[in-house]
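tokens incoming
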């Protein structure tokens, strides 16, 4: 029987029973209202770590709401071959073209959000283990996301992804001299760009065919990325395993107006689903060692910088800390992360092996 006929016929039978003087049987009220739907945008596709977390979040929301709240991912929401890809998604969220988004924390400093800068401070968050401690600290993660409200966003969770290293298409990038004058591909971020400049490089964010062309003609010297994403490079190149700019952390965020327009029950579903997704990501993320081994199997080379090299790199970025710590809140968070770092034990699987 067609669903379009089932309800009218059922209603007619109830009315007929009443008209005959009989007592109608008690029936349960069925909620036939349509589910609430929301769009979640990302610059990733569904094969990347951020995309996999989104798939999990979508399922958590559906399950926790009993299907009454549904999330529809918008993969590569920025379009193809678009520079500042993450910023495009952030602005779509601000303009209510998206209800939710998965956006790297580094992205927000170009959009006027300063509270997340401690996560991108160079050579500070240098292990997944430390990133895990930060994102699971309710107080610290809440403070880091607090500034998102300046851009009309509300943070639901911080979800760590992977360590970020310099990958060279020539000599290994293990000293400021090696960086000098080299164009380094990096996702747009004011602090990220400043880090590469402080090391002597030139940040850029070429897209599409321009990346391969830059490698072939020698104008692109390297890239800032992680082993888990290194299969997207035009050639594997040489990675400096212990030169870790930072750990990429994604922000799972909602447009504040869209969030406030939901019922309290649906707001709670989103927050609980975000927490569950974070826990899923922590337990399902591939290790640094495994990702590095896969990189080696694709023909990549991994080297390590000497203690003297690392000291020179740290010295080069010291002026950035002077600037960052002029903001009292940022200084406080950097200090807290430094203290936390001293107590974190990095497992062997959290370290890449040279090859």
């Amino acid at each position: 029987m067609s669903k379009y006929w089932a309800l009218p016929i059922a209603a007619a039978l109830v009315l007929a029973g009443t008209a005959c003087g009989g007592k109608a049987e008690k029936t349960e009220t069925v909620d036939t209202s349509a589910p609430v739907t929301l769009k979640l945008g990302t610059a990733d596709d569904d094969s990347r770590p951020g995309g996999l977390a989104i798939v999990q979040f979508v399922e958590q929301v559906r399950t926790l709401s009993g299907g009454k709240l549904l999330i529809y991912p918008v993969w590569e929401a920025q379009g193809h071959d678009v520079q500042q890809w993450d910023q495009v998604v952030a602005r779509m969220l601000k303009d209510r073209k998206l209800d939710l988004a998965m956006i790297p924390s580094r992205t927000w400093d170009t959009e006027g959000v300063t509270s997340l800068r401690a996560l991108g401070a160079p050579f500070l968050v240098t292990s997944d283990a430390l990133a895990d401690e930060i994102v699971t600290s309710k107080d610290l993660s809440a403070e880091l996301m607090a500034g998102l409200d300046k851009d009309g966003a509300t943070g639901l969770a911080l979800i760590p992804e992977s360590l970020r290293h310099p990958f060279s298409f020539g000599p290994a990038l293990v000293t400021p001299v090696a960086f000098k004058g080299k164009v380094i591909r990096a996702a747009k971020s004011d602090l990220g760009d400043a880090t590469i400049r402080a090391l002597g490089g030139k940040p850029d964010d070429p897209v599409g065919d321009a990346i391969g062309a830059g490698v072939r003609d020698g104008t692109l010297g390297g890239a800032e990325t992680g082993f888990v994403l290194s299969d997207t490079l035009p050639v594997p190149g040489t990675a400096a395993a212990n030169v870790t700019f930072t750990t990429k952390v994604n922000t799972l965020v909602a447009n504040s107006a869209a969030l406030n327009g939901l019922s309290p029950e649906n707001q709670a579903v989103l927050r609980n689903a975000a927490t569950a997704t974070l826990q899923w990501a922590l337990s399902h993320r591939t290790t640094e060692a495994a990702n590095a081994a896969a990189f080696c199997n694709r023909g990549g080379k991994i080297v390590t910088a000497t203690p003297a090299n690392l000291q020179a790199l740290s010295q080069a970025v010291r002026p950035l800390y002077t600037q960052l710590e002029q903001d009292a809140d940022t200084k406080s968070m950097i200090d807290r992360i430094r203290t936390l770092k001293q107590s974190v034990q990095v497992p062997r699987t959290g370290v890449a092996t040279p090859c």
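note: Confidence is low (pLDDT under 50) at residues 1-27.
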